[in-house]
Design brief:
The protein is built from 16 helices and 14 strands. It is of the alpha+beta class and 857 residues long. The protein is flat.
């Protein structure tokens, strides 16, 4: 595998996308410790194999939600690009999208599938484990510094276990363990299944016993079948007899049914014959009535014809008679109309006279009110002048009321003050001598009390004088207030009179406004009166009278039709009262039924003859059926005896069949059990054969296979150790000048350092010597593993190979690098002295927690 290019985004100290193109040859990533050199190697391993045993929190840059690595490489002459990414979700980090470009085609894989695909591409045959990286890659291509230290410092068993896995020979150990487990399982199974041999013997004995019982059951079943056939024949014979007897019984039942039916039919026919005789009598009576009706129709024929003629004549004059009645009614209505109209118009004239009289009186009242209006206006002006000073009086009244309130307040205040002084004086007079005065705070004596009493009396006298003055003012103001109140009351009365006058004036003004309307109404009603009088005396009623005369003329012309109608009506009504029409028609209708009644009589007579013949036939058949019915009891007894005999045989047959069914069930069950035993025996035979075969396999595993694996593993490990020892010494002697120090590998692959024939502990070596041992061990592992798995020698990654080397020892690295045959060697180191030993140099620097890679040479 050759790495062509790597793109790193948000991995550890790399923030923005960092692209590094890697050529062939020896390449050095040089930078200070912690600058981000090893991150490049971790990114390469992540791109190839995923997280493995790497903690995602240590790989994704802090504070970033997503990081990724894109690695372009070449293997087997083909170019590939692999992409893996990390995604932060909450407090957890997951491997997210992953894909592989193969021949320019993008293919997406799961985490495990992509790892298996990469191992297959780079030629590493290794079991895929999700939680670990590639062991062979770690030892054959890139071994982290810390991992190498763990190998060297582990105990012997742990070291051999790690190296077995690295060399690919742990399969021998795994195969041996699996073979031992399988051999143990075989022994356990063989012990358990040896009881099957005893089961086989028991099953064989039981099979023989069941086969004997089954043969006996078969004989019993055959005998029972023959018995059942014989019993069935007996039952069939009985059934045949029962069938004949049932047929006889059916004939008896049919005869019984026929008897009932024939008797019923005979009774019906006799009743029908009786009904037919009655109907024939009725028909004879009806024919007699028809003959009588023929005589009545003959007698009434002349009268009926006269009635028809008179009725038709009446119909002919009915229209003119109706017209006469209509004209007569119109005449009566017209006469009544003329009379009513004259009366109506005369009534209207009287109404107009009454309304004109009322309007004239109302007009006269308006005239009188108009004359009084001027007097009212004068009185209004006078009252308004009298109440003009009302506002001044009201203002003066308010002023006097305020004065009264103030005076009363002062009087109350003076009375309160007098009461207060009297109280204070009493309180002082009640104090004893030598007491403290509550006003001047001096001690009281008789002189001081007299002075205070005098002072209180003077103040009281002054208050009384003021009180007298206020009481005098109060009386004067009260008198003045009463006068003003009386004047205001008088003004209020005058104001009320003024309102009445103004209301009256308003009504008069309203009447004056209606005066013209009244005059207009008087004119209108007078005009209407004249028109009505003109109508009563004019041509209106003359025309009505002429119309009345015309109606008289028309009535005279058609009066003859009216007379004929009245005469004919009397005659027709007289005929109708005698029911001539209905009587004649009724008898005539009866005569029309004569032929139909004669035909009905003929049919009835024929039906009666047929009934008499049928009655005779039914009587004969009835006698025959009664003869058959006499054997009923004998047939029923025979049938009961046959049924009892059949039931007895059927019960016996049922028991036989039940017995046969039980024997068949037992026989079939035994057959199934025989088949089951045979299958079980066959299976047990197969199991016994398998047990023998499995036991042979267990013996082979224990005696041959497991010892062979142990021997092969031992020989391979010895061969690997010898080869590893040679390669280890080769690389060590390139790093350390030949002197009195030599190295070798023991059976646990522990590096042994000897000096002057004495063994040295690794911890006692100098730093450069320790690093030389570790580097030689690492290079030896790389080389041996490549040989064993036949991995192409085209890529090697060295992480800090010179840690602890002196300046002089660093020169030795040149010879190591020249000795390496890999087409591409990647060295990561903080030592600048190595720059002269490589073709390509990348400088790795870290600023503001961000790593950057620059091509130096």
């Amino acid at each position: 595998m050759i790495i062509k290019k790597i793109e790193i985004t948000n991995i550890r100290s790399y923030k923005e996308k960092t692209t590094i193109e890697l050529p062939m040859g020896r390449i050095l990533f040089q930078g200070d410790i912690g600058s981000g050199k090893s991150t490049i190697l971790s990114a390469i391993e992540f791109a190839l194999f995923g997280l493995g045993d790497i903690d995602a929190n240590h790989l994704l840059r802090i504070g970033e939600s997503k990081g990724s690595v894109l690695l372009e490489f070449e293997s087997g002459g083909k170019s590939y690009s692999v992409f893996r990414s990390l995604l932060r979700r909450g407090n957890k980090i997951f491997q997210d999208e992953g894909f592989l470009y193969e021949d320019g085609v993008k293919n997406s894989y799961s985490v495990g599938e992509l790892k298996s695909k990469i191992l297959n591409i780079i030629g590493i045959n290794e079991r895929t484990q999700t939680k670990t990286t590639s062991t062979i890659y770690r030892f054959a291509i890139y071994t982290p510094q810390e991992m190498m230290k763990n190998v060297l410092t582990s105990n012997n068993e742990r070291r051999v276990e790690i190296l077995r896995r690295a060399f690919g020979i742990e399969e021998y150990s795994i195969a041996k363990k699996n073979a031992e487990k399988f051999s143990s399982w075989i022994r356990t199974i063989t012990r358990i299944k040896k009881t099957v041999i005893n089961d086989l013997s028991n099953y064989s004995k039981e099979l023989e016993s069941i086969q004997n019982i089954t043969e006996s059951l078969k004989d019993e079943i055959d005998y029972t079948k023959d018995s059942i056939v014989s019993k069935n024949d007996e039952i069939q014979s009985i059934l045949k007899k029962m069938l004949d007897t049932r047929q006889q019984k059916e004939k008896i039942i049919q005869a019984e049914s026929s008897i009932l039916h024939l008797q019923s039919t005979l009774d019906k026919n006799l009743k029908l014959k009786e009904v037919t005789n009655l109907e024939l009598g009725k028909l004879n009576n009806e024919l007699n009535d028809i003959y009588k009706s023929e005589k009545i129709v003959s007698d009434l024929g002349a009268k009926y014809q006269d009635y028809i003629q008179k009725r038709e004549a009446l119909v002919n004059v009915t229209e003119q008679a109706s017209q006469y009645d209509k004209l007569l009614l119109d005449k009566v209505k017209l006469e009544s109309n003329i009379s009513n109209e004259r009366e109506m118009w005369n009534s209207k004239v009287k109404t107009l006279d009454s309304e004109l009289e009322e309007l004239t009186l109302e007009l006269k009242e308006i005239k009188d009110e108009t004359e009084n209006l001027n007097n009212l206006r004068k009185e209004e002006v006078m009252i308004e002048s009298n109440i003009g000073d009302m506002a001044d009086f009201q203002t003066e009244l308010d002023h006097v009321s305020d004065n009264l309130s103030g005076i009363r307040s002062e009087i109350m205040s003076i009375n309160n003050e007098i009461s207060k002084q009297n109280s204070e004086l009493d309180s002082v007079l009640q104090l004893r001598h030598d007491a403290v005065c509550p006003y001047c705070k001096q001690k009281l004596n008789e002189q001081h009390i007299l002075e205070m009493e005098k002072k209180f009396l003077q103040s009281k006298e002054l208050l009384k004088n003021n009180l007298d003055k206020f009481e005098k003012d109060l009386g004067e103001n009260q008198i003045k207030k009463n006068e003003l109140v009386n004047k205001l009351k008088q003004i209020e009365n005058r104001k009320s009179e003024l309102q009445k006058i103004q209301i009256h004036m308003a009504r008069v003004n309203a009447i004056l406004k209606n005066r013209e309307q009244i005059k207009s109404k008087i004119y209108e009603k007078t005009t209407n009166k004249k028109l009505i009088q003109t109508k009563l005396q004019g041509s209106y009623f003359v025309e009505k009278t002429k119309e009345l005369e015309k109606l008289d003329e028309k009535l005279h012309k058609i009066y003859s039709y009216k007379e004929s109608y009245d005469s004919l009506s009397k005659i027709v009504n007289a005929y109708q009262k005698t029911n001539l029409d209905s009587t004649y028609v009724e008898h005539l209708n009866l005569i029309k039924l004569k032929q139909r009644k004669i035909e009905d009589k003929r049919i009835k007579e024929k039906s009666l003859q047929e009934l008499e013949d049928e009655v005779l036939v039914l009587s004969t058949k009835l006698d025959e059926m009664k003869v058959i019915f006499r054997d009923r009891l004998e047939v029923e007894n025979n049938l009961k005896n046959l049924e009892s005999e059949k039931e007895l045989h059927e019960n016996e047959l049922t028991k036989m069949k039940e017995n046969l069914a039980m024997r068949k069930t037992e026989h079939d069950s035994n057959l199934r059990q025989i088949e089951s035993f045979k299958r079980k025996i066959d299976e047990l035979k197969v199991v016994v054969d398998k047990i023998i075969y499995t036991d042979q396999i267990g013996t082979w595993l224990t005696q041959h296979f497991i010892p062979s694996l142990e021997q092969i593993e031992s020989q391979v490990l010895i061969s690997v150790k010898e080869e590893f020892n040679k390669v280890f010494q080769k690389w060590f002697y390139l790093l350390i000048e030949v002197g009195d120090i030599d190295v070798e590998i023991d059976e646990f692959f522990t590096p042994i350092v000897n000096q002057s024939g004495y063994r040295l502990e690794l911890d006692s070596l100098s730093g450069g010597e320790k690093t030389s041992v570790a580097l030689a061990y690492r290079l030896a592992l790389n080389e041996i593993i490549r040989r064993m798995i036949m991995l192409e020698d085209n890529l090697l990654i060295l992480d800090e190979p010179t840690d602890g080397f002196s300046k002089e020892q660093l020169v030795q690295i040149k010879y190591v690098l020249e000795e390496l045959t890999a087409a591409q060697v990647i060295v990561v180191s903080h030592e600048k002295e190595l720059e002269g030993f490589v073709e390509t140099i990348y400088r790795v620097v870290k600023e503001s927690e961000k790593s950057q890679v620059e091509l130096a040479a």
